[in-house]
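Office hours follow-up: a student asked to see two folded examples consecutively, so here they are.
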Amino acid sequence: MKTYYVGKVKDEAEFRRRIAPGPKAVFFASPARETAVIEEYPWGGDYQPRAYGLCFEAPDAFLVYLAAEEDHVRCEVTEDNGPVCTDSCLEFFFQPASASEDAGYFNFEWNPEGVLHLAYGKGRHGRFHMKDRTGKDFLIEKQKRDQIRTDGWWYVAFRIPFSLIRRHVPDFDPEGPILGKGNFYKCGDQTEHPHWGCYAPVGTKQPDYHRPEYFAELISAGQPESGDQ
């Protein structure tokens, strides 16, 4: 099982400072063990865009940053909980640590306009779609459309409140060393060059992100660095 280390920040302002240099600079500046490079493309294809994810633990939420380098993006879905995976899409699936066998996982799926598909459940089927929540409830910031054309990168930064997690997984403990399991994904089902990438490899014959048995272990990296105090 692959292991990803979740960094710590003292607040959202510190998180914003860390991502302020932009996705390319952040990619090269971030510690390797805290950078989930999406470089596994187990289902082939010549188009394999550079993409990565970062996850930080703040006092009341996880703060997540997803970024991809793409010259041409598809962004057609405009309604939250729509099929954003058909657009240029970045995703983070998270299964909180729990003693309960009934605990499921969240799937946060974003397109470049900050449109969110969010659900919770134990597998692909029978998921609870959070239709009362929109991307604006979680989004911290995103790359502006004109900057995507200029920089060749797009990104989304968002929060996952612990209160939301505990609503579905009451015994989740963000203070524990093992925070859960998860995976970071890059896809685009109906883009000019369809592609399906992941951080932790998925051992299925066809693209399938709803496979928690292949999730990476998410471990706390410890306290914020001394320079961030």
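And the second, which I mentioned at the end of office hours:
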Amino acid sequence: MSSKEMPREISRRHVIVLIGAAAAAAGMLPRVSLADKAATDAAVKAAGGDGAAAGGITLDLPQIAENGNTVPVGVEVESPIPQS
């Protein structure tokens, strides 16, 4: 088939692939927040107010990983929550 010819029929498989690609592309688009500033401020205040504080979390990560599929990661959190 030359590059100028178009396929004569489209299979269900092609339609499903096109729909999946369109859904994936739509998922990558930036989303607009529908909350107004007052609602956002109320949610921040209800959640504790000031946002994230510095410190309290220690990450142990290698500077370079030979295999990106298996990178050892260590996380330590200083928390007043008792261990159960």
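Two things to take away from it. The chain has a mean pLDDT of 80. The longest strand covers residues 57-60.
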